[in-house]
Specification:
LRR_dom_sf; Leucine-rich repeat, LRR (right-handed beta-alpha superhelix); 1 helix; about 15% strand; LRR_R13L4/SHOC2-like; Disease resistance R13L4/SHOC-2-like LRR domain-containing protein; two-stranded parallel ribbon; repeat
C-alpha cells in the first residue's frame, strides 16, 4: 500500500511524537503533519521522498530542528513551518531545494536569523517571516532571490533592510509592519506595487519612493517619527496613501506639495 501512496495527512495527531519511516513511500507528493504538537523530530528517511512537492509542518510546536536530509527533497515546492516555536535554525543544506517557491516561517518565534543559504533558492516566489519576534538580521545577499514576488517581515526585530532589496526585480509586495526597531528603508525595486510599513514607530527616513514607479498602495499609518516622503509626487499609479498618525510628517506644507 505505502509504495503507491501519494498523500499522507496526519494533521492533529496529538499523540504522535516522531514521524514514521518514509523509505517505502516513494510516490508521496503531499505530507501534512499540521498541528502534531508533540512531534519532536522528522525521520531522516524523509530524504527518500523524491516526488514530494508539499510538506506541511505548521504548528508542530515541539519540532526543534529539520534533518539535513530535507535537502534531498528535489521536487519540493512548498514548505510550511508556521508556528514551529522551538525551531531555532534552518539547515544550510536547504540551499539544494531548487524547486522551492513558497516558504512560510511565520511565528517561528525562536528563529534569530534567515541563513544565507536561503538566498540560493532562485525559484522562491513567496517568503513569509512575519511574527518571528527574535528575527533581528537578514542575509546580505537577499537581493539574489530573483523570483521573489512577496516578502513579509512584519512583527520582526529587524533594524535595517538590506539595500540589495532594490535588485529584487520581481518583488510586488513588501510588508515590514510593526517592525518597531526599523529606522530607515532603502531604495525599492521598480516592480513594487504594494508597501506596508504601518506602526514602524522608529522609522525616520525612506529613500526616494519614486524608484518604485509602479507603486499602487502605500501604507505608513502610525509612523510617528517619519519626517519626509521624497518622490511621492512622481508616483503616477498610486491609488492608496495611508498616512494616519504620521504626526511628524503631516503639516500644511506637506499637503501643499500633494496638490
Amino acid at each position: 500500500v505505502l509504495d503507491t501512496l501519494e498523500v499522507l495527512d496526519l494533521r492533529n495527531c496529538d499523540n504522535l511524537t516522531k514521524s514514521p519511516h518514509f523509505r517505502s513511500m516513494t510516490q508521496l507528493q503531499r505530507l501534512d503533519f499540521r498541528s502534531c504538537t508533540e512531534m519532536a523530530e522528522l525521520d531522516p528517511s524523509i530524504g527518500h521522498l523524491k516526488s514530494l512537492t508539499d510538506l506541511v509542518l505548521s504548528n508542530c510546536k515541539s519540532l526543534k530542528e529539520l534533518p539535513q536530509e530535507i535537502s534531498q527533497l528535489i521536487s519540493l515546492e512548498k514548505l510550511d513551518l508556521t508556528g514551529c516555536h522551538q525551531l531555532t535554525a534552518l539547515p544550510k543544506s536547504m540551499r539544494r531545494l531548487k524547486q522551492l517557491n513558497w516558504l512560510s516561517l511565520r511565528q517561528c518565534s525562536s528563529l534569530t536569523e534567515i541563513p544565507e543559504c536561503i538566498c540560493l533558492l532562485l525559484n522562491l516566489q513567496e517568503l513569509d517571516a512575519s511574527h518571528c519576534e527574535s528575527l533581528a538580521s537578514l542575509p546580505d545577499s537577499l537581493g539574489n532571490l530573483e523570483s521573489l514576488r512577496k516578502l513579509d517581515l512584519s512583527w520582526t526585530a529587524i533594524e535595517e533592510l538590506q539595500s540589495s532589496i532594490a535588485s529584487l526585480d520581481q518583488l510586488e509586495a513588501l510588508s515590514v509592519a510593526c517592525c518597531d526597531r526599523l529606522k530607515s528603508l532603502p531604495q525599492f525595486p521598480p516592480s513594487l506595487t504594494g508597501l506596508k510599513a504601518t506602526s514602524c514607530t522608529e522609522l525616520r527616513t525612506i529613500s526616494d519612493v519614486s524608484s518604485a514607479k509602479r507603486l499602487k498602495k502605500l501604507h505608513l499609518c502610525g509612523c510617528t517619527k517619519l519626517v519626509d516622503l521624497p518622490g511621492i509626487m512622481q508616483l503616477e499609479f498610486l491609488r492608496t496613501l495611508d498616512l494616519r498618525g504620521c504626526t511628524s510628517l503631516i503639516d500644511d506644507s506637506f499637503l501643499d506639495r500633494l496638490q
